[in-house]
Amino acid sequence: MSTSYGASKEILQCITTEVIPRRELFVKDSNVSMLKSSRLSQKFLVSSGVCTKFHCRSRKTTIVLSMPSSSRDEKAEDEADRLTYKDAGVDIDAGSDLVRRIAKMAPGIGGFGGLYPLAGDSYLVAGTDGVGTKLKLAFETGIHETIGIDLVAMSVNDIVTSGAKPLFFLDYFATSHLDVDLAEKVIKGIVDGCQQSDCTLLGGETAEMPDFYAHGEYDISGFAVGIVKKDSVIDGKNITVGDILLGLPSSGVHSNGFSLVRRVLNRSGLSLKDQLPGGLVTLGEALMVPTVIYVKQVLDLVSKGGIKGIAHITGGGFTDNIPRVFPRGLGAAIYKDSWVVPPVFNWIQEAGRIDDAEMRRTFNMGIGMVLVVDKEAATRILEDGQGTNSMYCIGEVVSGEGVSYHY
After folding, report:
1. Does the pTM exceed 0.85?
2. Which residues of 123-157 are buried (b: 16+ CB within 10 A; e: fewer)?
3. Which GO annotations describe the biological process of this protein (predicted)?
4. Average pLDDT over residues 309-316
């Protein structure tokens, strides 16, 4: 078949068939009868929040068009206009390569937290992190009271993925000239974060290093240590095909991806004082919302059993973090539109013209923690959680490595 299309007179039509895997869906709200989406028409039958099974097949038609050179040039310009995390100065692949090299020198690393065996029946679990260039926005907005919560969250959320209860936290605060009032605000946030995670601020280091940082700026890092019984460690080894992925909502960007966020902000022409498009707060307020500390919620769920693996969604997003808890040969099928994506991510993607794949590998997209559970536990957790903490069924474990997305 031929027809005219722009400067070209060739058209190749091909028909492909796409089979969407069977999905085991858990829905928290028993009143929901259909998940509305412009591209999703299947009805979700719900009865008291339990699992409803259905099979789904769809056929889609793909039209492959030959493209004139002018269109190819426009496409190349369009691709060049799209921002990536690497464009903003962060190379995730290089970071992963460094971890692999370190693992050769120190075998056993690579988890969210490091386990150290104690004499007896327990492991110490340790983690360390910072808050990245979110600090730059703290300097610009003057919001220093909550950056310490972010600092604690990044470490305690990592170690709780092993099922460990945080015991204590240590901080490091460095600046060129010590502003006592500013430092006090930061430390107060750290204290708040420790209270939220039920651990002790055991100590820290304050380093004053003239000429090392710009005036009024500082850097912070943190270190958390927890404990877990050896027979209670959550390590993902028992994860199997068909297990359910439950997502705990994030408060926003949390503390990853801010190099790209800042590049998007510069491109957008907006200021941190402008209102977030589609939101009710300013951009500064939306971006500086502190990271959720999941410790108490997760440990409560762990105590009830059925949790096989936990992934903290930080740098690397869904793409790199969820597979870290899987045995070899297993992957994740994520249900698109199965949770509410905060408006800040829509703005970031639109203003930065960022591809879906890049968004999913850079940001948490509204899910800060993913629990891998068996079907029975998923039913119980979702039913028990009605009316309290929000939670979403976001996918399931499938055969084949990697993360795929399905409607």
Report:
1. no
2. bbbbbbbbbbbbbebbebbebbbbbbbbbbbbbbb
3. 'de novo' IMP biosynthetic process; adenine biosynthetic process
4. 95
* 43 occurs within a structural domain: no
The answer to the question of residue 157 being in a domain is yes
Q: 153 lies in which domain range?
A: 112-233
Burial of residue 70, with CB atoms counted within 10 A of its CB: 0-12 exposed, 13-18 middle, 19 or more buried: exposed
Question: How much is the average pLDDT of 168-187?
Answer: 97
Burial call 179-214: b when 16+ CB within 10 Å, e when fewer: eeebbebbbebbebbbebbebebeebeeeeeeeeee
**Does residue 205 lie within any of the structural domains?**
yes
CATH for 220: 3.30.1330.10
Q: Is 202 helix (H, G, I), strand (E, B) or coil?
A: strand
Name the 3-class secondary structure at 245: strand
Cα separation of 25 and 23, whole Å?
A: 6
> Dihedral through CA 307, CA 313, CA 318, CA 322, nearest 10?
-30
Distance of alpha carbon 267 from alpha carbon 277, whole angstroms? 15
Measured distance CA(235)–CA(110) in Å, rounded = 12
Residue 330, helix vs strand vs coil:
strand
User: How far is 163 from 185, CA to CA, in rounded Å?
Assistant: 31
Token pair 């068009």 in the structure block, residue: 65
Closest residue by Cα to residue 312 from 246, 369, 365: 369
Number of structural domains (the chain) is: 1
**Position 280 in a domain:** no
d(CA 218, CA 176): 7
Listed as own residue / partner, the contacts of 114-120 with beta carbons closer than 8 Å and 24 or more positions apart are: 115/162, 115/233, 117/230, 118/227
Do 370 and 315 meet the contact criterion of CB atoms below 8 Å apart? no
CA 160 remoteness from chain centre: 15
Angle made by CA atoms 54, 331, 398, in degrees to the nearest 5: 30
CA atoms of 204 and 222, how far apart (whole Å): 9
In which band, very low, low, confident or very high, does the pLDDT at 83 lie, cut at 50, 70 and 90? Answer: confident
List of E strands, 109-199: 114-117, 122-130, 165-175
Q: What confidence tens digit (pLDDT) does each residue in 236-258 have?
A: 999 999 999 999 999 999 999 99
Residue 43's SS3 state is coil
Three-state secondary structure call for residue 222: strand
Residue 19 tokens, joined: 């089979």
